[in-house]
Amino acid sequence: MNKKEIYQLAGEIRKKIIQVVGENGGHLASNLGVVELTIAMHRVFNSPEDAFVWDVSHQAYTHKLLTGRYKEFSTLRRHGGLSGFTKRAESPHDFFDVGHSSTSVSSSLGLLVGRRLQNQKGKVIAVIGDGALTGGMAMEALSHGGLVSKDLIVILNDNQMSISENTGSLSKYLSKLTMTSPYQSFRLGVDTFVDKLPFVNKFITKFIFRFKRSLKGLLFPNNLFADLGFEYVGPLNGHNVEELEAVFQQVKKLHRPVVIHVITKKGRGYSFAENDPATFHGIGPFCTVDGTVEKFDTLSFTEAFSNHLVELGKNKKIVAITAAMAKGTGLAAFSRKYPDRFFDVGIAEQHAVTFAGGLAASGLIPVVAIYSTFMQRAVDQVIHDIALPDVPCIFVLDRSGIVPDDGETHQGAFDIALFRGVPNMILTAPASAMEEKILLDWAVERKAPVLIRHPKTSCPSEQTGFSQPICEGRGVLLSCKDYAPTACSSLENADKKVLFVTTGGMFSEVLAAARSLLLQEIYVDIYNIRFIKPIDEEYFLKIVEPYCGICFVEDGVEKGGISEALERLVLKNDRNKKTEIKALPDRFLAHGKRNEIVRDCGLDSESLASAIKGLL
Prior knowledge:
It is a single chain. Helix 5 (104-117) packs parallel to helix 6 (136-148), helix 13 (301-312) crosses helix 20 (433-446) and helix 22 packs across helix 26. This protein has 26 helices and 17 strands. The strands form 3 sheets. The protein has a 7-stranded mixed sheet, sandwiched between helices. The protein has a 5-stranded parallel sheet with strand order 1-2-3-5-4, sandwiched between helices. Strands 12-14-13-16-17 form a 5-stranded mixed sheet, sandwiched between helices. Helix content is 41%, strand content 15%. The protein is α/β, with parallel strands linked by helices. The longest helix has 22 residues, at 3-24.
């Protein structure tokens, strides 16, 4: 394609991305920002012989469109359709199943070293955002990459944002690097000139290389990437295909590690995303004409947490911490109200947890809000720096359990199994906005390591009993008189009784199942456990004693979950009880709407009702 056709292609790609994300939801701003960069990469390098490794990979929509997935692109993020991230099963052009940040340099270096050990050709190109560099793993990989000194290519996509606006000294450092563009223009000119010289011998090439390094040292003596052993190129205009291609052609010839610093604009070509890239980073279906997102009257668990934490912020000992997810975790409102007691540490969950431990040791009460899936990265810090010293710290795990749309890497399936066995840790699971509030109040007063997990969904309607005061280790028992007083009046003297025992994130599905069973004249009670750890075992056994059958429902993996432990407790006490566990299966959960994933896991109301009938 010629220059005119290339930019026409870029416009068509943007139009397609906006259209599909408008219908399906997805990551818009980040993808619009890398259209020209992706085109230039595919024009210079030969994928899949040359491997592209996308950090997080939520910005790989253009890459998907250019690698044979245009016809399927309308299925993006739909159940059974294309993933919103790179996926090995989709295409040979996707080398890793990715969804978490700061991994690309490590993966790329491993792939490159493995290829070279097997005498395989091809370049490996890691594309990483400036926000992802705040993750310590990325810096560890850069340090190792410079030491190994292979011909790794790292493209630093610098758009001054991760999800929220970047903070910290590294962001300032990258801004400082953008001042070195005169040197880069000079350098590119020298390289182009040398390439045109006939019969250039090794001495002249070595002399020119040393001259460039000396000139770089004179103009900008402190370059982090150069000090780590990388050749640094940039900053470049990430929306100028010709400039990008020229540099990529030069870099392709090098046999040493290179960092190419590219400046892009998040949301490029769509004014609403350009003006508000945080909102349009990850967004649900929206009107593409005016950029408006449909708003619902229902209150989400995230909003319930956010609203109450602002109220609790009147206590000056409370501080809030996030890892580049202030808006997604509900801490944005707190940050506006109490900016001096709000800390965004960047994409650095491990640091966030240990930093919170230090704050707690000083006498403050830190509230750390992180997605469940990202909290997996900080398990050791929770154990070593919070639970072991037993310092008061509150963890609020957003998007626990089943998470719609984003697929395997974003499911909050493992937090119960990961943290239930940690000494001193208290795990809770609210079933409503009211329980979210009173558990948060209780956690502040408890002065211990407390984890509150809630799902990405709307809060169900409040039930009688949800406002009961917290009693550690005990939950709330709801009879059909509580959740359907009229329907159950004729069943009061039913001989056979069955019980749902559920974690808070599954209460809506359990309630729907219980009400459907009442229509079939089957009496069923619900025990919302509230506490995953500790469990008041004596009290729990008294609760379940009258029931002939018990169905445990959990929005976490069955293996290592709370349902297994409670079932074991029940059967140890009474072998005649009939029990069944309905939890997340031993596999990774694909993307889809919440109701589709729930149905695939056998956790929808129909499946739960069927399980109760089986017990009877």
